[in-house]
Specification:
mainly alpha, membrane, cell membrane, MetI-like fold, 276 residues, disordered N terminus
Length: 276
Amino acid sequence: MTLVSHFTPARENASTSAQKTSRTTRLLPRHPIAGQRILGPVLVLAAWWISTSLGWISPGKLPGPTAVYEAFIGTLSDGTLASDLGISLQRTGLGIVIGVAAGSILAILAGLSRIGDSIIDGNVQVKRAIPNLALIPLFIIWLGIGESMKVIIIALGVLIPIYINMHAALTSIDRRYVELGQTVSLSRSRFLRDIVIPASLPGFFTGLRLGVTAAWTALVVVETINATSGVGYMITQARTYGQTELVLLGLVIYGVLGFTSDAVVRVVERKVLSWR
């Protein structure tokens, strides 16, 4: 049993990767400099502020950051923003949890079983080819315009990248590890813990990053179609009344949420996969 712990895919891959990239790791920093990824958005914000301040862009078409900030303070003061943002976060969080759980289970069933692969993979590939936007009318007919429809659309957006990346990781496990597990008579639980899980984690986190991004994209869609609450509803109402600064505020909020959630997943991935 000790032999298995020394030959898991995670640890051997870590050693091989370290040997092959020793020169690269000396030239590049181990982790990106704190705040490095925010440089691009800051430059865009600066260009936006300069172009609106100098009158290069009409305020009627694109209000400046000051107007958007004032809209933020106004909606925050009257409680509108807090209410809509809370509902959006609740929808997205629930959709991500359901999508991650369903995608992971389906990937494990399809990745470790030929029968499961035959039944599941084809259906997932068909869904992959159908955009969520095309499914919204059908789900409205089935579930109405309530929270269930919105959460399921978000969950489907998360499920696909989780499944695709985990399935690819599981089906590419080196057969030597499987044979080693059989040789030392690993139980099913030990086989999953020592071989399957370490091999699937890189694919899982890649899928999670893509899935979180897909969740925010799906949220934008469901909250601007037949919604009565949320940040997307705020954007729709602002568009109706010509309040461009509120439209921009909603877009900025979506962008900040997406950037922040991706950064959180990166941090967790770096800690969990420190052996890489």
